[in-house]
Write a structure and sequence with these properties.
CATH topology of the largest domain: FAD/NAD(P)-binding domain
Low-confidence stretches: 1-14, 461-473
Distance between the termini: 69 Å
Oligomer: single chain
Bound molecules: flavin-adenine dinucleotide
Strand content: 15-25%
Radius of gyration: 25 Å
CATH class of the largest domain: Alpha Beta
Number of helices: 14
Number of domains: 2
Number of strands: 25
Structural class: alpha/beta
CATH architecture of the largest domain: 3-Layer(bba) Sandwich
Helix content: 25-40%
Strand order of the largest sheet: 5-2-1-9-21-20
């Protein structure tokens, strides 16, 4: 087609042709690994297409703040287009990748669009894992997406509202019982934030219930909270949680969830308890694209579906197909063959490394193996309460909390987010308030049957109207 027909100046046409001849890096997933890879390829002589099924990058470590009304969804998300808008060699596409053909070097999106690549970085992360009990997902939601956090927020605040209307003491206690399953960093953070919410933020907001009656139970299958942390930090975290009012139960496993009845196994005995809000923070499994890669390339996957990668994060026998972040099982670092943990810090390092590796390979320079330099790990429990293992030093209490705040603000992607979150946290800190306590979506509690919900609606009219007869709402 001539320049006159396309309406483009010859120089523009040449530029497009030149660009199209550049090595094409396709990145699937705009999470920590994918985004850091895209950012690090900014000045490289390649064209980059970043594909994500969402149009934003999500800062998952702060999801629990959204779930407990401390922050709004927008505070912890940044539009991918705006994050990458200054990088002229990066194109952002919103779409879900449903298939990959490593031999033909192409990915297929949901609506059958096909995109060819020269190098592919697959970083589609993970989701929660119910260990064969996927039917619990509706009753015990996990937290991985913004929708998950909003659903958890809906259930938490709806439980207090329903308790306010409930006249049966046993059912009211079940509504005021919150069970967090899994005492890793997410479970600990969630339980601590729930305790602050119930015992501080909303303590004077209700008429019929006393939020102090709220029970927050944190269950852990292992013998301590924060199992991967040093034992003294686990012990410090437990003390902080108990100080906040959280009941910690270790060596306890959920064996069944049926409506608001949760069966818990401890010391070989199974006992039932009533809890209308069960929150799942017990495990993760890799994105289903890990299985697709395994089927197409013969690569091995581990027990949770992560792809076993080579030392440069490539898939064995496919040197231009890389896996990053939570989807990668990288076991080349420790002599004991233990894989690196699925954390944001590991994912960011993998993303930056992959960008460097692709640049080095294009420049025909040698590539060294990926090596993660741990800067330590930390978990927040509540106001002035956190634990931090900084490798050279272990901290708990206020110093750890102070470092946690600044590390999390620092790594929030956009300047706007950083400022907003800092201001909101300062406000929350001094006022004990959590301003984003909205209940959105429908007003049912999945743990309660429809009959029970209807019965409660009947009672509301009785309570509100002060009438003696039972009137159906
Ligand atoms: C509640 C919670 C708290 C956490 N707290 C911490 C913490 O305090 N510190 C820490 O270091 N780590 C923490 N983590 C872990 C950390 O968030 C993950 O390790 C990290 O997000 C992994 O990065 P990733 O790039 O592999 O995947 P993700 O960040 O999950 O990104 C994956 C991206 O891929 C996209 N995607 C998925 N499938 C497709 C598809 N088929 N097509 C297109 N796009 C797709 C998703 O939309 C998403 O944007 C936490 C995680 C959670 C859930």
């Amino acid at each position: 087609m001539t320049a006159a027909l396309t309406g483009q100046a010859p120089t523009a046409q040449k530029t497009t042709a030149q660009q199209n001849s550049l090595h094409h890096v396709v990145i699937v997933g705009g999470g920590f690994a994918g985004l850091y890879a895209a950012k690090s390829l900014g000045k490289a002589p390649v064209r980059v297409t970043l594909i994500d099924k969402r149009n934003f990058h999500l800062f998952q470590p702060l999801l629990y703040q959204v779930a407990t009304g401390g922050l709004s969804a927008g505070d912890i998300s940044s539009p991918l287009r705006s994050v990458l808008s200054r990088q002229k060699n990066v194109k952002v596409l919103m779409g879900e990748v449903v298939d990959i053909d490593p031999d033909a070097q192409k990915v297929t999106l949901k609506r059958n669009e096909v995109i060819n690549y020269d190098s592919l970085i697959l970083a589609t992360g993970s989701s929660h894992h119910y260990f064969g009990n996927d039917h619990w997902a509706n009753i015990a939601p996990g937290m991985k997406t913004i929708e998950d956090a909003l659903e958890v927020r809906r259930r938490i605040f709806l439980a207090f509202e329903a308790a306010e209307k409930e006249t049966d003491p046993a059912r009211r206690q079940a509504l005021l019982t919150f069970l967090v399953v899994g005492a890793g960093p997410t479970g600990v953070e969630l339980a601590g934030a729930l305790a602050e919410l119930a015992y501080e933020t909303i303590k004077d907001d209700f008429t019929n219930i006393d939020p102090q009656e709220t029970k927050i139970i944190l269950l852990e299958g292992m013998d301590r909270v924060l199992p991967p942390y040093p034992t003294d930090l686990s012990a410090a975290a437990k003390v902080s949680l108990e100080k906040l009012g959280v009941e910690v139960r270790t060596q306890s496993l959920v064996t069944n969830i049926d409506g608001d009845t949760v069966s818990i196994k401890h010391d070989g005995e199974v006992a039932d308890m009533q809890a209308c809000t069960v929150l799942w923070a017990a495990g993760i499994k890799a994105s289903p694209l890990g299985r697709t890669i395994a089927e197409k390339t013969g690569a091995e996957t581990d027990r949770i579906g992560r792809v076993m990668v080579a030392s440069d994060l490539s898939v064995p026998n496919y040197p231009n197909l890389y896996i990053g972040g939570d989807l990668a099982h990288f076991a080349h670092q420790d002599d004991d063959g233990k894989p690196l943990p699925g954390t944001a810090a590991v994912a960011m390092d993998m993303g930056s490394y992959l960008a460097k590796t692709i640049k080095a390979k294009l420049a025909k320079k040698p590539v060294s193996a990926f090596k993660y330099k741990s800067k330590g790990s930390m978990a927040v429990i509540g106001r002035n309460e956190a634990v931090a293992d900084l490798n050279f030093m272990k901290l708990s209490g206020f110093p750890a909390w102070f470092i946690w705040i600044f590390v999390h603000i620092y790594f929030l992607i956009e300047f706007d987010n950083k400022l907003l979150v800092l201001l909101q946290w300062a406000w929350n800190y001094f006022t004990y308030q959590r301003g984003a306590r909205l209940i959105t979506g429908d007003d049912s509690i999945p743990a309660l049957s429809e009959a029970v919900m209807n019965e409660m609606e009947t009672e509301i009219v009785t309570v509100d109207g002060g009438k003696k007869e039972m009137v159906k709402a």
